[in-house]
Amino acid sequence: ARATPSRITRFFHGRLWRRLRAAGVARAARVLDSGCGRGLLVDELRRRGVDAHGYDAYDPAFADRAILAAGYDAAIAQDVIEHVADPLALLDQLGRLVRPGGRVAIGTPDGAAIDLAHPERWRHTLHQPYHRHLVAHPALLAAAAARGWAVVAHYRRPYTNTWVPTLNQPYLLRYLRAVDDTLDVAFEPPRFRWAMLSPA
Question: Tens of pLDDT along 74-127?
């Protein structure tokens, strides 16, 4: 709820859009962001000329279920599947929303990558109680295959994990730990004084 548009969010959303384009989503595509939150990705895609729409049951601006009746060339569920009661039902819903030959893009932490011997390292991936399911990527790929979907691309690195200094996960996790180790800090104004003075 605290997320606001910024150069950083636009940079990240641009990276996500480039991945979608590389997977065959046309510039003229009709795109649904399912679980869109405040609609920042929807706004950025529209700014780029995309026919983008959003649905999110928890935001009144995007809670109209009528949007789920239309056909789309692509449906995005970024950081959504881990929050729903039934991940497979979400896949089925996305499959019904996308026209034949369309694309379904799902971004989620890889449950298979978590080392529960060191849960403190995975605090934000586990994100209890909000993450209800952590799907292993091989299981997600198998669920896609069971639905007759062909995998066009699979990325092990999130689109937000870049080689740009300060715009990557190691930096973000260190920054969160230095403040109060909650994800809320990522959506507050940056604390540049700390960032510039910390030896880490």
Answer: 999 999 999 999 999 999 999 999 999 999 999 999 999 999 898 888 888 888
Question: Which helix (H) or strand (E) element contains residue 49?
Answer: none
Q: What's the pTM value of the predicted model, to 2 decimals?
A: 0.89
Instruction: Strand 72-78: give its sheet, edge to edge.
Output: 51-55, 30-34, 72-78, 98-107
Going by C-beta distance under 8 Å and a sequence separation of 6 or more, which residues neighbour residue 49?
Answer: 27
CB 137 within 8 A of CB 154: yes
Residues pairing with 78 in the sheet:
107
Longest dimension (CA), the chain: 53
CA distances (Å), origin 20, targets 45, 63, 73, 169, 184: 11, 24, 11, 21, 28
User: What DSSP line would sit under 90-131, residue for residue?
Assistant: HHHHHHHHEEEEEEEEEE---GGG--TTSGGGGHHHH-TTT-
Bridge partners (DSSP) of residue 104 are: 75
User: What is each CA distance from 192 to 6, 10, 11, 127, 164, in whole angstroms?
Assistant: 16, 20, 19, 26, 17
